[in-house]
Design brief:
By secondary structure, the chain is of the alpha/beta class. The protein folds into two domains: about 5-140, Rossmann fold, CATH 3.40.50.2300; about 165-264, PAS domain (Beta-Lactamase, 2-Layer Sandwich), CATH 3.30.450. The chain is about 35% helix and about 25% strand. The chain contains nine helices and eleven strands. The protein has helices at about 10-25, 35-45, 60-70, 95, 105-125, 145-160, 180-185, 190-195, 210-220; strands at about 5-10, 30, 50, 80-85, 100-105, 135, 165-170, 175-180, 225-235, 235-245, 250-260. The strands form two sheets. The chain has a six-stranded parallel sheet, with helices on both faces. Strands 8-7-11-10-9 form a five-stranded antiparallel sheet. A hairpin with a 2-residue loop joins β10 (about 235-245) and β11 (about 250-260). α2 (about 35-45) packs parallel to α3 (about 60-70). The chain is elongated and about 55 Å long.
């Protein structure tokens, strides 16, 4: 029976590149094009190897890896992060949580570096403590544009964390793709426990119909920019504000804001 590899990357052509390379080594490849789809695939299939990009829409690579570690604490498959932003994040590799890291570079060099990594993994699936686990395709240097992009991402994350109310981001299929720490405190879940779960799952069962009506209401009514209702969560009276999430003028999901009225 062939081994299975899961490749999670929003770059279609890079997914195809890795797929071809891994299939030549005898792997059956499962493909996912963002972290949310990757979580679904991982819950459906057992894998022997996991490749994941860092910068992806919906659920990013770092969140995906944390989810994987929490959901499958005894899993014996190596996680390889392969990303174009690794060089700009060298000081924070330990926070990412992968076993191996490959910096994306010129495509003509990538096959050789991925194959070298695979040779190492097939001999020793996990790196030794303090072992060298970063492979760079040639000499790479931090790029100012990428550094500025990462700084912008960090800034917006800080704003979301500091806003003073709970925020949950919900995809079009009504599943959670992000949440700030205050929202997670209100619903008493970690981010890894909340990711890709239906938004109704963090509310009491008795409130399920109310949540669904609010999601439908802000989408169906062009005049309604938000719908507000109250919910009792863990003995707290929580004001819930549901708004449509729009990207380029198109509805991409919902923002669910949560505020403890006892602290207002």
């Amino acid at each position: 029976m062939s081994k299975k590899a899961l490749v999670v990357d929003n770059d279609f052509f890079f997914v195809e590149f890795l797929t071809e390379l891994l299939e030549k080594r005898g792997y059956e490849v499962i493909k996912a094009y963002d972290g949310k789809e990757g979580i679904s695939k991982l819950e459906e299939e057992s894998v022997d190897l996991l490749f994941v990009d860092l910068v992806m829409p919906k659920i990013n690579g770092k969140q995906f890896i944390k989810f994987t570690r929490k959901k499958f604490p005894d899993a014996r498959f190596p996680i390889i992060t392969i990303s174009g932003t690794l060089i700009e994040q060298l000081d924070g590799l330990n926070e990412i949580g992968a076993d191996y890291y490959i910096a994306k570079g010129p495509m003509e060099q990538m096959a050789d570096h991925v194959n070298k990594c695979m040779d190492r993994i097939e001999k020793q699936p996990f790196p030794p403590p303090n072992g060298e686990d970063l492979l760079e395709p040639g000499k790479l240097y931090p790029r100012q544009a990428t550094v500025e992009l990462m700084d912008t991402v960090v800034f917006h994350q800080a704003v979301t964390e500091s806003i003073g109310i709970g925020i949950i981001v919900v995809d079009r299929d009504a599943r959670i793709i992000n949440a700030n720490s205050l929202a997670l405190t209100i619903v008493n879940r970690s981010l890894e426990e909340a990711l890709n779960r239906p938004i109704t799952a963090v509310f009491p069962k008795i409130e399920k119909a109310k949540v669904i009506d609010a999601l439908k209401g802000v989408i169906q009514s062009e005049e309604s920019r938000k719908i507000t209702f109250y919910s009792t969560i863990r003995s707290q009276n929580i004001r819930i504000i549901v708004s449509p999430l729009k990207i380029d003028g198109k509805i991409a999901g919902w923002i669910v804001a949560m505020e403890d009225t006892n602290n207002g």
